[in-house]
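Rotation project, supervised by the postdoc (A.L.). Task for the rotation student: set up a whole-complex structure prediction and record inputs and outputs verbatim in this book. Inputs entered:
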Amino acid sequence: MDRVDDILAQWHRERPDLDVAPMGLIGRINRLSHHLGRGMEKTFAAHGLTAASFDVLATLRRSGRPYSLSPGDLLGTMMITSGTLTNRIDQLEKAGLVERRQNPEDGRSVLIALTEKGFAVIDATVTAHVATQARLIEGLSKQDRVALDALLSRYLKVFESGTSEGKS
Amino acid sequence: MDRVDDILAQWHRERPDLDVAPMGLIGRINRLSHHLGRGMEKTFAAHGLTAASFDVLATLRRSGRPYSLSPGDLLGTMMITSGTLTNRIDQLEKAGLVERRQNPEDGRSVLIALTEKGFAVIDATVTAHVATQARLIEGLSKQDRVALDALLSRYLKVFESGTSEGKS
DNA sequence: CGCGATTATCTTGACGTCAAGATAGGCGCC
DNA sequence: GGCGCCTATCTTGACGTCAAGATAATCGCG
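Outputs recorded:
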């Protein structure tokens, strides 16, 4: 019995004509995402980051040497718009964690690169972050984790099929 | 193979010391929440609402007659802060969908009530919303839905146990 | 080789959200 | 009954996000 069950029971009483089973599943995904996000924010804040800035630094870090990608490349893996990305890069550049470099091969484009400081920050943060995630998931048995992950993966494929785009 | 698999593979190459299994599960929940939210926003917008305003109206509607709750009651079922709620109510009041009434039993408190117009809007919107949700979930087999919902419910209980509060 | 179409990034303006603190009404001990 | 404490709601200021459009550089057809 979670909050979603209460919500569904209320709808069933008020609008018995509606099939609210999908609402339950979608509501649970949303609420879990929210709880998990709040839990992870604290770790980011402890390292001077937000979920937004962590996202950019982590994408650059895991891309491997030379830890630099164009804004367009970053957009491809992040679920945000171009304006949002510009804003994120501005903040990180101001903080000295990334720098904008000219792209020698295309004057329209730019390369966003981790600075030395940025590398140190993201490497320390991601280590703590993984520990936080492990803690956030410890309430679920090993079996449930595997089963849940498999089902989520199958569902996510509906929106992000193969290697192409993930439009909604 | 979704985007999350790509991300995990990159981390495994760059930081083989980290156990990224939790990151996969949490990342999939986040991305699904995002995709689903984007899909549902369009329905809200078609009825002049946002996810935020829908949330308030729906909570009042499903609470049953007389379709009125105090801000404190609303906060109990919504995952937002009091300042955010004040802002949402201000917008809805300006749009004529809810109204603030004095609480005869407690001068500190207020009652937020659906107006006639607000009732009509939310009733029409929720009907369309349920149809949208049914569409967003149709990529998943009936069996998978049931299994996924059961696992999500078990996981959500970690954060929202019983009838008490759901702090993170 | 020049100019229109395309691509890459940034700008603008409007919202939604949060944390922290301010305001204001009620409650209870003395 | 008065005064300090608690509770309910609102205010403030800083961010993050989006949609739509602006700017700037490259591409490609004639």
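Student's summary: The first strand of chain B starts at residue 68 and ends at 69.
Supervisor addendum: The beta strands of chain B are 68-69, 98-102, 110-114.
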